[in-house]
Design goal:
Length: 131
């Protein structure tokens, strides 16, 4: 059995299950404004919304914030809006963050430990606060 030939055969069979991806490359620079794409830091947050909290009432921390206006156009994704990923503080230091697409219930082991939110388009006219 030729390993290279078998590998190519398996790859061609698996390609039908592939999904499109984007690759994010962080840069060591400050975000331009509160609604810029970033990893960590202070999130954009509308004043009329309750900030995400854990089941115990602790504020979740921002893992990542993606502003679709700053990203290349992606099929089946919005052109505007902000996608945010929040996790409990202990998620960062004690266990891996697992993203389950299509689920925004945010429960791991019965605890509310993560949230994934899509906020509408924003700008200077939007009211906001940083947490």
């Amino acid at each position: 059995m030729d390993v290279e030939v078998e590998g190519k055969k398996i790859r061609s069979e698996l390609e039908q299950f592939s999904l499109p991806i984007i690759k994010l490359l962080p840069k060591a620079e400050n975000a331009e404004n509160i609604w810029s794409s970033k990893f960590g830091g202070k999130p954009y947050w509308p004043t009329n919304m309750e900030y995400p909290e854990s089941k115990s009432g602790e504020k979740l921390i921002l893992l990542a914030q993606l502003n679709f206006e700053e990203l290349p156009n992606l099929a089946e994704f919005p052109q505007v809006g902000i996608l945010q990923f929040f996790i409990e503080d202990d998620d960062v230091s004690r266990r891996a963050f697992v993203l389950r697409l299509g689920s925004n219930r945010g429960f791991i082991n019965g605890r509310r430990s993560r949230r994934i939110l899509l906020l509408p388009a924003c700008g200077f006219s939007a009211l906001f606060r940083s947490q």
